[in-house]
Amino acid sequence: MSDIGSADEGISSQNFMFPEYHGQGMEVGGNNFDSGQQPQEQELATKMLQIQSKRFYLDVKQNRRGRFIKVAEIGADGRRSQIFLAMSTAAEFRDYLSSFSDYYSSLGPPNPDNVPDDGKLKSEMMLKDNRRYYLDLKENSRGRFLRVSQTVTRGGPRSQVALPAQGMIEFRDALTDLLDDFGTDDGGYKGELPEGRHLRVDNKNFYFDIGQNNRGVYMKVSEVKSNFRTAITVPEKCWPRFRDILSDYCEKMGRTLPPDSVHDVPGAPGPRAGSAQPSRDIDTFTGSAPSRI
């Protein structure tokens, strides 16, 4: 079987996902990097696998924010693609490799007349904070392979690697060795983080995403227009105060705006003071029923 190219699906293989390697800030494995600073990075261990005409490097790396695994694919033509995994995500991926391999072993020989239109034979998804990993066992004219795609929140660029199906067990065993040596604990908040939320006002979109790093849980509030994006980060410890300030402004504006204009604005406060309607808490981000953050 010939080699499966990582760019078969027409997605760029460049490393857009973790721009901290170019001096910008981004979360890695639940860890934040300070914007504009190049982190001091240490390589703790590496494994190289030769699968068909591809080489795969599994590197355990550490910087001042913690540890993570970089998976790099080098094609026969020298083209490079890579994804990054938190230690806990790498452990989840290892377990999926076993189930995908079992499914692959149960398949008969490739049949060009019985291939799904999108080529997908089996799919799974992993979620880590605000990053998603899509695992697709696919088949095309060159054979069967596992495509692993990593995306950032809100439609950011995608990076991916493609692992020939015959190499899944070998890859799993190499990953297991690294996890046995360095563990799977990311640290920080252990519970499930809330889903992100979205608010649209006129031609603006606001996104509220919850993440975590070794300093704790935080909320990233992004304002997005067609040619503009900006964001702030609010640590969890000040959410109550942040909420109180917003509520205070909502209450004050509710006393000055005409009743009709109050209800025309999404997320606006309730009736003005003195109204016969009962007062209640308002989710100042969405204008819906209360949802504590």
* N/C terminus separation: 52 Å
Structural class: alpha+beta
Output mean pLDDT.
Answer: 75
Radius of gyration: 23 Å
Mind explaining what this structure looks like?
The protein is α+β, with helices and mostly antiparallel strands and 293 residues long. The chain is built from 4 helices and 12 strands. It has helices spanning 87-106, 168-182, 239-256, 259-264, and strands spanning 42-51, 54-63, 66-74, 80-86, 120-128, 131-140, 143-151, 158-164, 197-201, 204-213, 216-225, 228-235. It has a 4-stranded antiparallel β-sheet. It is globular, with a radius of gyration of 23 Å. Residues 5-39 and 262-293 have low confidence and may be disordered.
Summarize the structure.
It contains four helices and twelve strands, in the order E-E-E-E-H-E-E-E-E-H-E-E-E-E-H-H. It has helices at residues 87-106, 168-182, 239-256, 259-264; strands spanning 42-51, 54-63, 66-74, 80-86, 120-128, 131-140, 143-151, 158-164, 197-201, 204-213, 216-225, 228-235.
